[in-house]
Automatic annotation (TrEMBL):
Name by which UniProt lists this protein: DUF1593 domain-containing protein
Keyword tRNA processing: no
Superkingdom field: Bacteria
Signal peptide: 1-21
Keywords: Signal
Entry GO MF terms: hydrolase activity, hydrolyzing N-glycosyl compounds
Organism this protein belongs to: Flavobacterium nackdongense
Positions of the Cellulose-binding Sde182 nucleoside hydrolase-like domain: 47-168
Length: 339
């Protein structure tokens, strides 16, 4: 092999290594659970199944991220005290689908990890909520919070914590870092939350925190936002732009979404929560803004949790305009996964 050819292949290796190194590190907290468990919400399930569709979409996009952990059933539903191990459910439900699809995804697109595993939340059975009067000096009783802390400890890069529901676990981690003066860890954390604030939907300009994901554990929500306003943490609040941008602006009709059902992950995406002639995967906003080239990036969201109504409205409109592109990209990947 002559020197020119060697240089060419070395260049390709360098480019590929750079792409891998630039993948954002991601940790996800989701209230997602098995949607066959009966509950009292509007879907007659314990937890809203929109996170199921959002997770299937994330797995279709998984080659774009360095996934460090996915914590399921981080929620406060009393029904989960005896609902069975939800990590086992997720590893079976998503894990089997991912393993069936990943071969073709890597053949046709590339860069997907061999498998992605799920962890059950430490608050799933206790339904514990963040207590503003508690100093969380130890994480001994909070296994999934400790696992994230350990990932941050050994990382040289920022870990993006995507918050799809309750904020109790992120709040416990931030409290722990403050109590133990581990401000070095806080500098390596970036929180990206969906709909824990909105001046336009559920909430009001006078009380933007009056939304479901903040009412779930108000003390945790207020604590994190206070730390963000002080500048102690970075907290990107998406508002309701996933629901009222990506979902509202999405293609409509069974015919479009039936195209997804030829792959295993695509089928889960299309069927997780199909309402009003489209898929509800609103929490997906957290990873599309992280990617940053689908209408809204972190540059369009303030880092202190305090977006103005004007910013939220503008970002809704941007996501709505790019929603077709987002869904077509998911469909492209679903087709690439077909067996």
């Amino acid at each position: 092999m002559n020197n020119t050819i060697k240089a060419f292949f070395l260049g390709l290796l360098f480019i590929n290594a750079s792409v891998v190194a630039q993948k954002p590190k991601v940790w996800i907290y989701t209230d997602m659970s098995d949607n066959t468990i009966p509950g009292k919400n509007h879907m007659k399930t314990v937890n809203d199944p929109d996170d199921i569709s959002a997770m299937a979409g994330y797995l279709l996009m998984a080659n774009m991220f360095d996934t460090k952990g996915i914590v399921v059933t981080s929620t406060h539903r009393s029904e989960h005290k005896n609902s069975g191990n939800q990590a086992d459910w997720a590893n079976d439900f998503f894990g089997k689908a991912y393993k069936k699809d990943v071969l073709n995804l890597n053949i046709n697109i590339g860069g997907y990890p061999k498998n992605i595993e799920f962890i059950q939340s430490c608050i799933k059975e206790s339904a514990e909520k963040y207590n503003s009067n508690t100093a969380y000096k130890s994480l001994e009783n909070y296994k999934t919070v400790a696992l994230l802390k350990d990932e941050v400890e050994k990382s040289n890069e920022i870990i993006n914590v995507l918050c799809w529901g309750s904020l109790t676990e992120p709040a416990i981690l931030v409290n722990y870092c403050i109590e133990n003066k581990r401000f070095d860890l806080l500098k390596k954390l970036r929180f990206i939350a969906h709909w824990t604030n909105s001046s336009l939907h559920q909430g009001t300009p006078e009380d933007p925190a009056k939304v479901a994901n903040c009412n779930e554990d108000r003390a945790a929500c207020e604590f994190l936002k206070a730390q963000a306003l002080k500048g102690d943490i970075t907290y990107f609040e998406c508002g309701a732009i996933g629901q009222h941008g990506i979902v509202s602006g999405s293609p409509k009709g069974v015919d479009y979404y039936n195209q997804f059902k030829k792959s295993n992950l695509g089928k889960i995406f299309a069927e997780g929560k199909f309402v009003q002639d489209a898929v509800d995967h609103s929490d997906a906003a957290t990873y599309w803004v992280l990617l940053g080239n689908y209408g809204v990036s972190l540059k369009e969201i303030v880092s202190n949790s305090n977006n103005s109504p004007e910013v939220e409205k503008k970002n809704e409109e941007r996501f709505s305009q790019f929603s077709k592109k987002i869904h077509d990209e998911l469909l492209r990947r679903s087709k690439a996964a077909e067996n």
